[in-house]
Structures are given as structure tokens and as C-alpha cells.
Amino acid sequence: MSEARTQSDSPSSKPEFPITDRVKHALAQSLRGCEELLPEADWVKKLARSEATGVPLRIKLGLDPTAPDIHIGHTVVLNKMRQLQDLGHQVIFLIGDFTSMIGDPSGRNATRPPLTPEQIKHNAETYYKQASLVLDPARTEIRYNSEWSDPLGARGMIQLAAKYTVARMMERDDFTKRFAAGTPISVHEFLYPLMQGYDSVALKSDLELGGTDQKFNLLMGRHLQAEYGQEPQCILTMPLLEGLDGVDKMSKSKNNYVGITEPANSMFAKILSISDVQMWKWYDLLSFRSLDEIAALKRDIEAGRNPKEVKVLLAKEITARFHSAQAADEAEADFNNRAKGGIPDDIPEVALSGAPMGIGALLKAAGLVPSTSEANRMIEQGGVKIDGDTVSDRGLKVAAGQMVVQVGRRKFARVTLS
């Protein structure tokens, strides 16, 4: 679905309600860090109407519970939801228990196997629990799209499918590429964007959020709402967050992620490891500080403040959100202790047998490295210590006893070797 077609729906008439300073502030919050807001003029009209009438707008975010855990990259859209929630609008956290059974084809080059109802139920429970660390649960409407999708039945599904053409569906980038490459596309995959769009009809949403890879599905909601005689929703897409390396999208498979359930000390240290340049994008997308506060921090650095101090503020804010303010303070103290060569208090204890044991095998068995080749690499780089002494011999045989083993700056284990 092309953007041009969608924007042509946009009324060009003068807004019916006044554009107050509060409306301008709400627009600035909406645009903060976003990739696209379409059509912006329609969103301004909706905000102005809401301000004048006191009727909150309905903000929808749909997430398929394809995995039980989320990392902070997933919270980018949740943060935007929280910002709009704090402006007084009604946010709807939609769990796609029905659409999960179809499988979202977005960005995929092969048909994805659908999840079982049991997997969906398990994932949905932990998904919302984790999302509630960002959203205010007391002001969040939780819905499941099986509520209206199941009752559609075969007749309703056929009537819904009649509201969109195959030619328009094939404009979708991933379908186009797969068709050109001769890669199979199952008919049920055409149902996914239709069902996601129908969610917007069922919820009468004013705005739907999603990642940039969801644009086609979000625009489908606008199309179907118009087909059903509703005022079309606006759409807001958020960029994908680069991971700790500052290059690739945050991903567990690339090991450049910060999990929202990982220990506070690890979370704090990981965030502090990002570059000074990358820090500002994280502030825009992850911090709850106002734009004015962030601008003031930038001026502080320009005036000579150490960027690390500002990065510490970000690391503490995010760590406190998913743990507590006390945990964030303790994580900072732990980080400073490690930086001085100290040993953390909460390191894991590991009991191993087989002394004398090769250093590479010991590091792997203690869970400090994924492989002996990685152990050798770390030794060559001077990143392995036993009781504070750097190990330089890859062929070292470690004798029986108890010792503190360190790999890099953040990985420790108290090993008892027999």
C-alpha cells in the first residue's frame, strides 16, 4: 500500500478545533524519536479535538507473543505508548493471540510455522508482565484479538478478504521479493495484514504504533477503517534500536542486547558500554526525561561536562525502571568497584572436578566463555585473570583449589576445583 494513496485521504480543510500550546506539546511528544507519523495533519486534528472535548484518543499497540522475553529494543514502542499515556490518552495493549496462530510474514523470506495455543498463552503472560514495567498497568486496556477474530467465522473472513485486492497485497515488499524469487507464499499469510487491520476496526483506534517493518500492516488498518465507515487511524512507526555494538539491530542472536529481566549490575554495565554518540539516540528512544532536560544535558557536555556522567544517568534511569532505584545505586557502586579492580560480592560459585584442568576447559566449564577458542582469544588479549593475576599461557594447567576467575571486565566466578 503506497503512502501517497493513504495521504490523499487526508482532509485538507482547516482544523475544526484550535491548535493550543498543549496540542503543540502533544505533537512534539508524538514526533520524539519517531520514524514516521502519517498523516501528521490528521493527527494534529485528532489531538486538537481531544484537547477541546476532553475525550482521550485511543492508542493501539499490537504485539504477537512469539517469544516469552523482551529486551530493551522491544520497549522503544512501549516507551512511546507511555509518553502518550502520560498525556492522558487511552492506550490499548493488544495481545495478538489469534494473529500469532497465522504468523506475521513481515520481513520474512519464508513461511513461518504458527505457534500452538499453549505457546501463545505462556508467552502472552510473561509479555504483558514485562511490558507493565514500562506502561502504567492501572491506565492500560488489555485486549486479545481472539475476542473479535474468532466470532468472525468463515463467512466473516470471506467478507473481510473481499475488501482488499491481491494486487494491492502484492505491493508488500516481502511478498514481492518472495514471488519474484519463486519462494512459496501461503494463502494464509495474506490473512495476517487483514486481521491486524481488522483489529483497528474492532478497537476504533485513533493511532496505531509499530516498528518500521510494520508499516504495511498499519496502513491496512487505515484502509479497513474507511471501508467500515470509521475515521481512519493515524500511524506512527518507531525506528529499530541498534544494539550495544552501535551497528546492528539489537538482537539476542547477535549478543548485542540488554534484556529487561537480566540482573541490575549487568544491565547497568552494558548500558554504560555504549558510545557517547549512540547515547543520545538511546536518550530519545528509551528515557522518560523531557526533551528540554535532554537538551540541557547536551549543553552541559558542550560546556565541558564528562559524557560518562550523563551516560551514568541514563544507565541508572533504565536500571531503576526494570529493578529499583536502590538496585541502580548498587549497580553503579558495583561498576565502580570493578573499574578499580575490585571483585563483586554477588559472583557465581562453581564447583568443578578434574584437576589439574586446562585453563580453556576451566573457563568454558565455569560458564565464562562459550568455547575454548574464545577462551584462547581472551587469554591472548590479556583478558583472563586468576586471583587478580593475568593469565598469559594458553596451555596453563590449573591445580586444585579455590580461586576467583575473571574474564574481561564483567565476568567473574568463584571456582572450587577438585
Automatic annotation (TrEMBL):
Might you name a Gene Ontology BP term for this protein? Answer: tyrosyl-tRNA aminoacylation
EC nos: 6.1.1.1
* Catalysed reactions listed for this entry: tRNA(Tyr) + L-tyrosine + ATP = L-tyrosyl-tRNA(Tyr) + AMP + diphosphate + H(+)
* Motif 'HIGH' region in this chain: 65-74
- One of its Pfam families is tRNA-synt_1b
Motif extent ('KMSKS' region):
249-253
Molecular function in Gene Ontology: ATP binding; RNA binding; tyrosine-tRNA ligase activity
User: EC class of this enzyme?
Assistant: ligase
UniProt keyword rRNA processing, yes or no = no
Where does it localize?
Cytoplasm
Task: Tell me the keywords, alphabetical order.
Answer: Aminoacyl-tRNA synthetase, ATP-binding, Cytoplasm, Ligase, Nucleotide-binding, Protein biosynthesis, RNA-binding
GO cellular component terms, semicolon-separated: cytosol
Subunit note: Homodimer.
Q: Which family does it belong to?
A: Belongs to the class-I aminoacyl-tRNA synthetase family. TyrS type 2 subfamily.
- What is the role of this chain? Catalyzes the attachment of tyrosine to tRNA(Tyr) in a two-step reaction: tyrosine is first activated by ATP to form Tyr-AMP and then transferred to the acceptor end of tRNA(Tyr).
Q: What is this protein called?
A: Tyrosine--tRNA ligase
Gene behind the chain: tyrS
